[in-house]
Amino acid sequence: MEKQKLRKIDFLFSLVLIAFGIVVIVAAAGMPWTSTQRGVSSGWYLSPGLFPALLGALLILFSLHVLWRAIAEGGHREIVRFVTDALAAAPRSGKVHKVLLVILLIGAYVFGLLKNVNYFVASSAYLFVFMLLFHRRRAEISTARHALVLLAVAVGVPLAIGYIFSNFLNVPLP
């Protein structure tokens, strides 16, 4: 990709990340800034709002650096035409279609499968479909063997994660 196009993308994406950092800081401001454990109040440095506020501030700081570099290298020039050309080309772009498919799969998993199906079954089904759609089969492996390997991974990974979380980290899964 040419350097000017990258700088225009840096310019736009840094603005998006700055806005997201502001949203994170506003959300963190709504969290408690004092911590109470077992009836004992502790300092602000143990508060639940500190970590997200710090992440939001760092996101803004680093995005400002990217924005500054993008502007210094001309990324802000003709940005309106760049955006309109990109939006006009988006419906025909295979990359955009893939991103929309990924968003659709994640939405179906989170809002459909996890609410209605056991975690292990939902996660295995999601992983299998995702890998089937996006994992390229090597030419020397048969389609049946490829599907079996994907199925084994799709079943094994949620089982392994569930075992680790429940037995070692004491975190229940949905």
Most strands sheet: 2 strands, antiparallel
| Spatial gap, N to C terminus | 42 Å
State Rg. Answer: 23 Å
Strand content: under 5%
Total strand segments: 2
Outline type:
flat
Q: Which class of secondary structure composition applies to the elements?
A: mainly alpha
Overall mean pLDDT stands at: 84
Helix content: over 70%
For the largest sheet, list the strands in their spatial order.
1-2
Q: Which consecutive residue ranges, at least 5 long each, have pLDDT under 50?
A: none
Give the H and E element order.
Answer: HEEHHHHH
Determine the number of helices (DSSP H or I, runs of at least 4 residues).
6
- Structural domains: how many: 2
Can you characterise this structure?
- The chain is mainly alpha-helical.
- The protein has six helices and two strands.
- It has two domains: 91 residues; 82 residues, no CATH class.
- It is 72% helix and 3% strand.
- Strand 1 and strand 2 form a beta hairpin.
- The longest helix has 27 residues.
Structural descriptors:
two-stranded antiparallel sheet; 72% helix; 2 domains; 2 strands
Give the gist of this structure.
With 174 residues, the chain is mostly helical.
What's the arrangement of secondary structure elements?
Elements: H1 3-29, E1 35-37, E2 40-42, H2 50-72, H3 79-89, H4 94-116, H5 119-134, H6 143-167
Helix pairs in contact: 1-2, 4-5, 5-6
